[in-house]
Amino acid sequence: MVRTKIAIAGEGGQGVQSIAKILVEAGYEAGKHVMYIPNFGVEQRGGVSIAFCQISDEPIGEPRYSKADIVIMLSDRALDRCETYVDENTTIVYDTSVCTRAPECSGKRVIGVDANKIANEDLSARVFNIIILGVLLEATKVLDIDDVKNAMELALGKKFNAKPELRELNYKALEVGMQLIKEKAGV
Amino acid sequence: MAYKLDIAPALPDAQNEEVGASKFCPGCGHGMVLKSLAFAIDDLGIKQKTVFGVDIGCCLLAWNYLDVDTVQNHHGRTTPVIYGVTRANPEAIGIAYMGDGGGLAIGAQHLVNAAVRGERMLIVLVNNTNYGMTGGQMAPTTLPGQVTETTPYGRDCDATGRPAKGAEMIAAIANPEKSYVARATISNMRKLRSTFKKALETVDKGGFAFVEVLSVCPLNWRTNNVDTWARLQQMEEYFEVKEFVSGSEGQNG
Amino acid sequence: MVNKLIKEDTKMFLTGNEVLAYAANAAEAEFMYGYPITPQNEIMHTWCKLLPKTGAGFLQTEDEISAGFSTLGGILAGKRAFTATAGPGNVIMQDAMSMAEMMRIPFVCAVMQRGGPSTATVIYAQQETRLTCYGGNGEGFRIVYSTAGHQDLFDYMIKAFNTAWTYRFPTYVLADGYQGKMREPVNMYDPASRGITMVPTEASLLPDGEIGKDRKSMHWRNTYNMEEELMEVLDEYKVDFEALEDKIAEYEEYKADDAEILVIAHGIVARSARTAIDELREKGIKAGLFRPITLRPLARKPLKEAVNRAKQILFTESADGQMAQMILEAIYGCTTPYSTLYKMGVGVTGGDIVAKVEAMAKQPATV
């Protein structure tokens, strides 16, 4: 695919914009054309947070697109807010352990993952968004995991160096996310 | 018997001798304020580094009154233009010249914030208790019961509030260590000149200065000489004439 | 003098607001006056973060009124000063901008448009197009560059300073919240490496020389006593402004030579139009783009030629025809029918334009 259009939506504080930044930074480092618009409302905290990302082999024209190739929905409000970016070619991923219902729209396929539950029970609540990044990576297959790890180093390097176990935790979360979607895709 | 005056009146060097007769109304206080200011500029020898900004209202008529670099501004906006200049050129001594409307109404946020930030400038606020150029409307400083075009039955303080006391307000918020805040009056020209001198010295040392000058507007007040003087005395009772802050000179200097 | 940070060609992955701060530094801007308003805040943030390295100046003022007027003060003092704003801030800054227009002060401002009217959204729009071009109580003697992405932001921010200081009309970089907040790569360079020399600044207040010896004192006016006195001044300004069209008007065409349906769009919407045009061409529809880069002054001659060549026109913008109104006035006399795709305060996507042009191909415009 020449151009991949990605929307990630969740609640403020879930780390949506952080993983979008890592994602596009990885794309940029990999020599791809990238575009990222954070959707920002009036409030600093507490609104639905959406990241519009594009990763492409060719120069990107429109900064905002009508329909996404993949939409990640991480809360009930995100389900409602993001229907508009879905058409028959869209893959929808939503978190079954946060959302209280399934998305009503139908895309190419709808995948539920329980990243939040896994983060809380097996890893750490803080790496919930990194699990989602892993999911996204595996679902889109436009980027190499090493590029993403390099981008994580750029974003979180200082924290990693202060606490090396954090690096391992984040890598683990990334792997868990990728594994999660591999299993689901098989279903 | 008539005498020919063959000695030119003493004009301050900082006054623009090309202007000729003042454009202010007969009996207006602006000429006295400006002349005192020009003498103070002379006293300190700062003419070559002074930037003078005039506000809209009667102050605008001072746009070529002084022989210093001068800029006309919009109503209320002289303060930001002048601190824009002095921020960009720290050598400059900035003076913003405005009326009570320009300083205490439309430009009040600039006055307050310039004082709080300690902008390196002198703000001269000429208080004549009304908007002169627009025809004598109520100003923030209009005295209780004073008749203006928009208070034709006298200022009712219950409906329009009490007269604003600019110097007291600025004294409360300016940095006492680095500011000079005073109220002066055109009834004491010698004191007015020395007040301006102290204010400009403060600015020259990098501080903020505010001088409110009680002045007269006989045209809009519709007062003759005697009544004009009486009104000024009434103002001096309401608005206390004194130095409120003189930090750069040491304790209450 | 300020220290320039970009000494050799550097490719960076930044937000547009960050790009503008770097561009102002590359242009040797010495002072920024500003007031917080979304979506332009990161211009100030970046400018402030770079201050220890650049040695430039910054003042956070009490509102956009004072940001505008203190910028004028800084420029009158002879500094290459600028500001940035958006939305309601742009509204109240018009006060200072009209003083710049009257006094021919080389005021430079980046406008990152957000939704309007009122507080509306903090996100994106093209609804400050008319305000930026014609705001204030004057005639719109302003130069407005409408940018379509980060490279434009860098190039035109540099150019804005030179245009302003050469022609002494207020000059704008008109962008939007998407451009301000989005991240994409940009090639940054030292203008000198591209043969660009920054026009020297001069002080209007306290210029060199002693008053009474080398020069007279300056008395700068924006007020006139007589109507005729004013008109005489403005007539001169008008001659100067009209002469600008040949000197500085810029536009971009994309597949416009043989276009049957010509899309006219400015700013970031023109980028969506390019995406759409490629898709439409693949579908066999001969679409093309005319993008005015300078909205003031407009490149009227090439605009008219492109309009006359086409069979239909589509005006599209994230506003209710603010750009179209200016274009229609400029192409008065052309008979090419047109249609419109206006989305007030919302981005126009390539998909939107494709659908609209396909409909026009089936059912031609009649207006």
Explain how this protein is built.
The complex is a heterotrimer of chains A (187), B (253) and C (367). Chain A has 187 residues and is of the alpha/beta class. Chain A has a single domain, classed as Pyruvate-ferredoxin oxidoreductase, PFOR, domain III (Pyruvate-ferredoxin Oxidoreductase, domain 3), CATH 3.40.920. In chain A, strands 2-3-1-4-5-6 form a 6-stranded mixed beta sheet, sandwiched between helices. Chain A is globular. Chain B has 253 residues and is α/β, with parallel strands linked by helices. Chain C has 367 residues and is an alpha/beta fold. Chain C folds into 2 domains: 185 residues, Thiamin diphosphate (ThDP)-binding fold, Pyr/PP domains (Rossmann fold, 3-Layer(aba) Sandwich), CATH 3.40.50; 112 residues, Rossmann fold (3-Layer(aba) Sandwich), CATH 3.40.50.920. Chain C is built from 12 helices and 15 strands. Chains in contact: A-C, B-C. At the B-C interface, strand 2, helix 2 and helix 4 of B face helix 3, helix 4 and strand 9 of C.
Descriptive tags:
heterotrimer, B: 253 residues, alpha/beta, Rossmann fold, 7-stranded mixed beta sheet, two-stranded antiparallel sheet, 9 helices, globular, C: 367 residues, 19% strand
Give the helix/strand layout.
The complex is a heterotrimer of chains A (187), B (253) and C (367).
Chain A: E1 3-11, H1 16-29, E2 33-39, E3 48-56, E4 70-73, H2 76-82, E5 91-95, E6 109-113, H3 115-122, H4 128-140, H5 145-162, H6 164-186
Parallel strand pairs in A: 1-4, 4-5, 5-6
Antiparallel strand pairs in A: 1-3, 2-3
Chain B: H1 30-44, E1 50-54, E2 69-72, H2 78-88, E3 93-99, H3 100-104, H4 108-117, E4 121-127, E5 130-131, E6 137-138, H5 157-160, H6 166-173, E7 179-185, H7 189-204, E8 208-214, H8 218-221, H9 225-238, E9 243-246
Chain C: E1 10-15, H1 16-26, E2 31-34, H2 41-54, E3 57-60, H3 64-76, E4 81-85, H4 87-103, E5 108-113, H5 129-134, E6 143-146, H6 150-167, E7 171-176, H7 177-181, E8 183-188, E9 219-220, H8 227-248, E10 251-254, E11 261-264, H9 268-282, E12 287-292, E13 294-296, H10 300-309, E14 312-317, H11 322-330, E15 338-342, H12 350-362
Parallel strand pairs in C: 2-3, 2-4, 4-5, 5-7, 6-7, 11-12, 11-14, 14-15
Antiparallel strand pairs in C: 1-8, 6-13, 10-12
Helix pairs in contact in C: 1-2, 1-6, 3-4, 9-12
